[in-house]
Amino acid sequence: MTNYSGLKVLWQGLTGNKGWKPVWREPEPKAEYDVIIVGGGGHGLATAYYLAKEFGVTNVAVIEKGWIGSGNIGRNTTIVRSNYLLKGNEPFYEQSMKLWEGLEQDFNYNAMISQRGILNLYHSDAQRDAFARRGNAMHLAGAGAELLDQDKVRKMAPFLDYDNARFPIKGALLQKRGGTVRHDAVAWGYARGADMRGVDIIQNCEVTGFQMDGGACVGVQTSKGNIRAKKVAVCVAGSSGRVMEKAGMRLPIESHVLQAFVSEGLKPTIPGVITFGAGHFYVSQSDKGGLVFGGDLDGYNTYAQRGNLPVVEDVCEGGMAIMPMIGRSRLLRMWGGVMDMSMDGSPYIDKTDIDGLYFNGGWCYGGFKATPASGFCYAHLLATDRPHENATEFRLDRFKRGAMIDEKGVGAQPNLH
Description:
The chain is an alpha/beta fold.
């Protein structure tokens, strides 16, 4: 498969765009693979890509029950950042940010990475101090941060309601390297890169069970027949509980729906990403002008990719609290993604107690921004049977060991479930 370039895009435009070819194959599954990855979302495709590119493991199949891009990889608000605090999280998300920064050149695909910065607003002196602590941790991890007072935030976002009686905006924590990435293009780019290296991407193929032999996992049962493998790697986001139950495992995860919204197209307004510090609201502006925003979970267990109206009201109230001007814009569309919420808000990348079976999940709100590092670290685990140095804290047994990574503001709130 040939590489993309500006000259090729120009040539195809002048010749009627008749020379483009499918960017990945549609193979039938083989009888056996070295690794089967269950789940063709961002994490599964990134894992396959890095397995082939970094570790030379190319006899790999990615099995997806729907089509590529039909899950959470195409159902998020596209935000990327590495503004974390705790040692179990910060190095991992900083690794992801560095991979984002070189991703387009790495897999030769335009993912529309836009590092316009992320502003986390603070509304009290105590919150300012907490953000200062987080910013210091970010500096120690090489992520970079800047604590802004109100005057500096005003210069960046003059349209915010700084004198709100309930939630006055006193300043913000800025990570200039944060921003947004086109989510669909991430899936397509990783799929194309994996396919070019020999990975089979098998769409519309549902895993219905696991093949077990002597207590070990030796393959999967699918709607297209049984497929054997030396290793089976599950990364199915909100479907984690249902899929792993087929192997007799009960996970410390709940599945909830998280809604996202897009407004009508507006003139350029939002400079980057802005988050509300006194509630849960985050917003950016797409290249087409729509405000892309979201907030809290719907608050009940579900596998449905849709939400309910009370959360629509709650999210819009959060937006109105910091920028009342959006009350005049119209909501264009909304959707839901099924979140696999862990009880400390942090993920899992680990071998299970079943030989040959591996698990990646519990990404809560942070799955999209983690895509490159998740794929890299999962590929490292599958290739070497050792956790990557940046994912050593993401173990399934951490609750038994009392080693939770409980970082407020990055994931689940168990008291709300």
